[in-house]
Amino acid sequence: MQITAIETVVVSLPFTMGGPYSSFAGQVWDHLDILLVRVETEDGLVGWGEAFGHVAIPATRAAIDSVLAPLLLGRDATDIEGLWRRIPHAVHLLGRNGPFVYGFSGIEIALWDLAGKRAGQPLHRLLGGRDPGPMPAYASLLNYGDPELVARNCAEAAARGYRSLKLHETTVEAVRAAARAAPGAEIMLDVNCAWSPVEARAMARALAGEGLRWLEEPVWPPEDTTGLASLREIGIPLSAGENVAGLHGFRRLIEAGAIDIAQPSVTKIGGVAEMVRTIHLCQAAGIEVAPHSPYFGPGLIATMQIAAALVEKPLIEILWLDMEANPFDPWVRAEGGMVRLPPGPGLGCDPDPEVLARYGRGAPNRQELKA
Ligand SMILES: [Mg+2]
């Protein structure tokens, strides 16, 4: 079943976040940009994927358009495992983490969407699971840098049904403000690699009595597994993984005794199959899995489909913000702190073409198999 066309499409969605916009890699983050990958096969079926993402989109899109799409056109879309072996190998000299892996991730997700559509089965069924109904999500707050805004948004998220709240802050004050504003909710803290191991140990000791559900990526750089492991004895469960390169990156984290909770990210790690392999590796090592999924399209839906196929359902990460609209509505939003799977085959739903057209940023880049 030949791949006959690959398109990259960017949608840019206005949103509000209950406070001033934060920044991402030095840029004001005032629109949610999604890099969609649309893959067509010779039978006319279309699959959708999402590649990471946010301010990295121009780089990831260039990796797909210039190198990955030409490599994949004409290949067998049903040979997902074979393509995993050959395509990342063909581009491994260009980086084992970053735009080429992100780009492949988006294409691979689209291939699973196609596989499900062709089989008439949802992805979780292909992975051996069944629809569990509503699954618990956690509200992942963006950075406010102001304990009052943290408190206000935590109270609002708890009022909307979330029982688990994650902060992107770096202070004990912010954690206390969240706990006061949302009594009974569990609080997680993600500091995005803010600290050296020495600083991280001091901060972990200061946070040790706050009852955190987990402390996420406390150490810079993220590949410093020894530095991360040096915090374990302080007793706060440690999570990491969104910046880890593939299965073998997670193996190094586990072997170093660096994490309690693994956070693989489907749009970054290489797609669905590498995500599932990684989850199995972590579970075999007795490590909890909490996927990284601050996404708003096929990346989030693929994460939910993978979660549905697990016996122990992980918490699904939903960014705390309000989008004006989304082509994958309503499936990319939580209700009462829960998410549900879309009902169709593959990922379960296609984007709404009108919303795609309204919020599309520029024309799709399309490449076709030459006859
Ligand atoms: Mg994080």
TrEMBL record:
It holds the Pfam family MR_MLE_C. GO terms for molecular function: lyase activity; magnesium ion binding. GO terms for biological process: amino acid catabolic process. It comes from the Bacteria. Residues 351-371 are annotated as: Disordered. InterPro entries: DgoD-like (IPR034593), Enolase-like_C_sf (IPR036849), Enolase-like_N (IPR029017), Enolase_C-like (IPR029065), Mandel_Rmase/mucon_lact_enz_CS (IPR018110), Mandelate_racemase_C (IPR013342), Mandelate_racemase_N_dom (IPR013341). Keywords: Lyase. Residues 147-237 form the Mandelate racemase/muconate lactonizing enzyme C-terminal domain. This is Mandelate racemase/muconate lactonizing enzyme family protein.
